[in-house]
Amino acid sequence: MNVLGAVVAKDLKLAWRNRSGWLSAAAFSTIAVLTYSFAFDLATGDVRPLLPGVIWTTFLFAGVFAAGQSFQDEVDDGTFDALMFSPVGATSVFAGKLVANLIALLIIEFSQLILATILFDVALLTPELLGIVLIGTIGYVSLTTLLATMGGHVRGRSVLLPVLSLPLLIPLLIGAVRATGASLGLEAGTGPWMLLLMVFAVWATLAAVLLFPTAAEQ
Amino acid sequence: MTALLERVYAWRWSVLPPITGVAMMAMIVGALVAAPREIIEGEVQRLMYLHVPAAIIMYVAFFFTAFASVMLLWKRDIRWDAAARASAIVGVFLCGIVLVTGAIWGKPIWGVYWSWDARLTSTLILFLIYCAYLLARSVAGPLDEQAARYAAIFAIIGVADIPIIQMSVRWWRTLHPQPIVFRPDPALPNEMLVVLLIGFVAVLSLATWLISLQTDTERAAQRVSALRAEFDHREIA
Q: Which residues does chain A have within 8 Å of residue B164's beta carbon, measured at their own beta carbons?
């Protein structure tokens, strides 16, 4: 546990030092929400039917964009190999990165929910919705963090990552959008969609934790 | 065991092309001439003899890609990468056939080429996932072990994602005809069932042949790559 705590602290420190990447993700999601509001004219009429889709596509794009840079600094500085040779173990290295990414993304998402609440006058900061956002984020962060191990030398990497991860994330997107819709009172019962989100989160985290040591080998 | 497999594999050139040719001809004749005309759907129903086998063999190809990917990660033998890639290419090709024949059938029957039905949607997602796999693998050379491993991991996740995709889109919506063959009392007349079985043999042997051809091609590309690397190395030395 101490080891994991140390790795998480290291990754959070790293995320803070390289905050430009995370700030660009936050700026990107703000711009995306604003672009959607102009494109769909969300300022007029009942925006609630469109809101779940707008929120989750923004989260996914920002998340894939941000988590994609996960191991970039380590690979660029050559510290990734050192980390893998250290006695902490590959799983802890991955868990640390995962928790750091999760915290950073949750902060971005929380700020976007506040922004959307102000812009669209819909109460989005309910405990139920925050739970949906938390579980959905765990699901997609595990997969994108795993896929981010793709070699830094690959050309067009930043375009390739969304192309790789988004098809895999479609079940999560469907579940998250429907659960959010149900939570906003657009349809009945969040239950089955929450179940789908949980299944996806558990599956994605397990798959990522099991496959990371293989993916990280040089 | 390996020796036996290699001997069976060595026969591919003498066994697969004739079986594929005969079965394909039989399927075409059976589907267009021998099988009776379906009363409600009419001639367009004949697409089923290609559509259903292609859909099932597509899954077999994708599962084989995942199997070969597991073997690659386990045995560290780059030859499995060639097999995985070849199988994915054929799977994507069959998936394309399934989507196109489905759309042609859908227009007169449903009135639209495409509908966001559960099975159509999950097939489309699979198509995207395996196109992405091929893209992920193609960014690096045939002998790049890291890229091969990365693609293998992606292929395994892709196959493991299939049940969740099915579950999510089934809850999302369903319009596709329910299975009429794979159930205890098949609701298909015997003549149609026979043609469909011939269709299975035809598509399976075609897919096997194409996968073995493509595997040979990928292996050749790996060898060329190795030779080139060796040549460059000698030139520098």
A: 171, 196, 199-200, 203
